[in-house]
Amino acid sequence: MSRNARREGSPFKGLGTIVLKEAADHMTSARMHMIMLLVLLTAVGAVYGAVSHIRETTSEDPYLFLKLFTVARDPLPSFASFLGFLLPLVAIALGFDAINGEYGRRTMSRLLAQPIYRDALLFGKFLGALMVIAIALLTLWLAMTGFGILFLGLPPSGPEIVRSIAYLAATLVYAGVWLALAMAFSTMIRSAATAALTALSLWLVFSVFWSMIAPLVADFVSPANPYNPVSVLANFQVHQAIARISPQTLYGEISAMLLDPAARSVGPLFVSQLRGAIIGAPLPTLQSLMIIWPQISGLVAAMVLLFTLAYVAFQRQEVRA
């Protein structure tokens, strides 16, 4: 398609076809089957450990169902921690060869020779992969609900369902950030292996090393004097701001607020802020969402920014037959 050719009709013509085709390809691929089998087995192990731990330590709790997501038993992590660590791998696996794979198979020119625009092609690939992740997350959520009813002997309450659905939506946005990152590298790097290694390197930095880098940078930018509370608070705020560059930090704060109704803040609390509050009393779901709204907005903004980067790079590329 000529770069100077005049567009006719909607740029999203054929979007639905591409979305369904991409979703079907992912759902039937052996790579996706192996990844989801690993995710399912680990999730079942985490839930089983949580159920056994809840039976041993918890007597009465109005939000017992939410503890399935947060309670851990060695050596397995909690379900929420497990998703935060491994879900980026699923997103990267679905997006690292979305564009450069078409170039490698020499099918890009054939795709663009059809009556579709690049907008629909790129957006369809993104939505198709995101649909597969959404189906997988919904399946895990339904399995968690079933395990909770079966092993705990009681159904989730209305507030628990609302909080868990909000957590499910936030998790999908978190996966969308890594999917957009993988597609951006897939667009800018012609080698699929190099794009995958680059995306995995960033995932490793943000997931493992960023918690070590953030305090070092904070101490350099704003050193803390243990005898000066103002400097200690300033150091903590800088540390928190740097740590929130990582999507995993934002997702962890969202998970903590949504899955723990007793949590009142993602940062330090002063005595004046606790005046009149009942310690340990659950917050309404709307209040919890208001507290973490900046984190949710940050994840959405990161996803849009990364997808825009992939979109601009893809629009500037020349496709030859």
Write up this protein.
- With 321 residues, the chain is mainly α.
- It is 71% helix and 0% strand.
SSE succession = HHHHHHHHHHHHH
How many separate structural domains? 1
Report the count of strand segments: 0
What distance lies between the first and last C-alpha atoms, to the nearest angstrom? Answer: 10 Å
List low-pLDDT spans. Answer: 271-278
Helix content: over 70%
Name the structural class.
mainly alpha
How big is the Rg?
22 Å
Number of helical stretches of at least 4 residues:
13
Identify the quaternary structure here. Answer: single chain
Q: Give a short account of the largest sheet.
A: none
Average pLDDT, all residues: 83
* Envelope shape: globular
- Which percent range describes the beta-strand content? under 5%
Jot down its keywords:
321 residues, mainly alpha, 13 helices, globular
